[in-house]
Amino acid sequence: MSLSRIEQIKSFLEQKPNDPFLHFALALEHLKLDDSATAKAIFNQLLQEQPDYVGTYYHLGKLLEQEKAYEQAFEVYQKGIATATRANDRHAAQELRGAYQMLSDELL
Length: 108
What we know:
The protein is mainly α.
C-alpha cells in the first residue's frame, strides 16, 4: 500500500517538483516503511531547499532522536523553533519546544 503511495507522490512531484509538502509526504511514507535513511535524506534536502517549511523540523528531530543523534536533534529543534517563530506559527513553535524539552528531560 505505501509503495503505491510513494509512486503516487513521485508522480505528483513530476508535476510540482518544488512543492515542499510533497517532499515532506514522501519522507513520511519512507518512514512508514522503516526506510529512515531515505526519509532523512529527503528531510535534509527539504531543509536546504525550503528551510521555511516548518513541519520538517519536528519529524527530522524525532528521527535523529531515534538514531540517538541527540545533539543534532537539539539543533534541528532550535532551528525549527526560530523558523516557526519567524513565521508566527505558534502551534509549531510550541510543538517544537515541547519536543526539545522532552528530549532534554530524558537525557537528564
